[in-house]
């Protein structure tokens, strides 16, 4: 009991042993502007069937939710009971009537923060790598599961008046300290299960950035690898690191070109990769797509990673932004994932899909301004 109390007291002052401090989950500076479907660009033309399939996956997760709101961590509060009712009803709706059902039961609200509805939108994808269950001269790079000695604390579990802050660390003697950085993990064996062995460190690194991957095994079969946790250390993008070190030029900062450079310069690549202290741990999953933070498989072009400090997981969103080739992306999506770099009330990471370097290049080039509307059940009071 004394050790737990000591860990808690120490973690309260350790700002480096966990994730960034979240903004308090309130509506301060956040505004929801009631809108009409006529305000949604391309609403009439969007075929929302895939979005509804994604929404039904979220409904399966929400149906057993006992909390008052579908995501108690989010500032925007959507009644769980209201959502569960609509989730049950939509299973009885014919696909040709989906849009009519949405229009009759949800109201779109433009999300604004500090008077602006404009935010940044990027994209991610599910990577590919080659792997084996057994270590060999070819497959010698470990894909780690969650470490046995990693401990997670949240201050609000002890006192609701404390910041909503996730703290990740380990015990050294009688002291709770931050968990190992990427460089430390690279240089020594880790007290963690090894779920697979990869043939290339760069592919594993890219998988960690994306959060998941499809592994092609030695026998030609495929296994999906999903996110399970991270070491709580600060995330820093490899592009910014390489630019700061003057190892690449600004025009080479797309993810596809970065991956190519890392593979072509293996002797130079490890040091800049290790400057990103964040390390992601994985698990094997049986699903039809990568598993997002809500615990459901993601849908290509219809799942969005958000900052759940503001946006509740499972919420329907109408996204308006542009893709890497300046094409319009105006469509219905579902908030089903989060990301270490996805911070802000109007901020999204668009799930492009699964594939190799051609998908990586496309997803890695998306960096656009945009906005979104959150669709809230008519029966839910918007405060």
Output the structural class: alpha+beta
Unreliable residue stretches: 1-25
Instruction: Specify the helix fraction band.
Output: 10-25%
Q: List the total number of helices.
A: 10
CA gyration radius, whole angstroms: 21 Å
The CATH topology of the domain at 1-137 and 147-181 and 288-383, please? Answer: Barwin-like endoglucanases
Largest sheet: 6 strands, mixed, barrel
Mean pLDDT: 89
CATH superfamily name of the domain at 1-137 and 147-181 and 288-383? RlpA-like domain
Sequence of strands across the biggest β-sheet: 3-15-12-14-13-16
End-to-end gap: 41 Å
For the record, the CATH architecture of the domain at 1-137 and 147-181 and 288-383 stands as Beta Barrel
Fold blueprint:
Elements: H1 2-11, E1 30-34, H2 49-62, H3 80-90, H4 98-105, E2 106-113, E3 119-132, E4 141-144, E5 151-154, E6 166-172, E7 175-178, H5 182-187, E8 194-198, H6 201-210, E9 213-217, E10 222-230, H7 238-244, H8 255-264, H9 266-274, E11 280-285, E12 303-305, E13 316-322, E14 328-337, E15 347-354, H10 357-364, E16 367-377
Quick tags:
383 residues; alpha+beta; Barwin-like endoglucanases; three-stranded antiparallel beta sheet; globular
Structural features, described:
The chain is of the alpha+beta class. It has a domain at 1-137 and 147-181 and 288-383: Beta Barrel (Barwin-like endoglucanases). Helices cover 24% and strands 29% of the residues. The chain is built from ten helices and 16 strands. It has helices spanning 2-11, 49-62, 80-90, 98-105, 182-187, 201-210, 238-244, 255-264, 266-274, 357-364; strands spanning 30-34, 106-113, 119-132, 141-144, 151-154, 166-172, 175-178, 194-198, 213-217, 222-230, 280-285, 303-305, 316-322, 328-337, 347-354, 367-377. The strands form two sheets. The protein has a six-stranded mixed β-barrel, surrounded by four helices. A hairpin with a 2-residue loop joins strand 6 (166-172) and strand 7. The protein is globular, with a radius of gyration of 21 Å. The model is unreliable at 1-25 (pLDDT under 50).
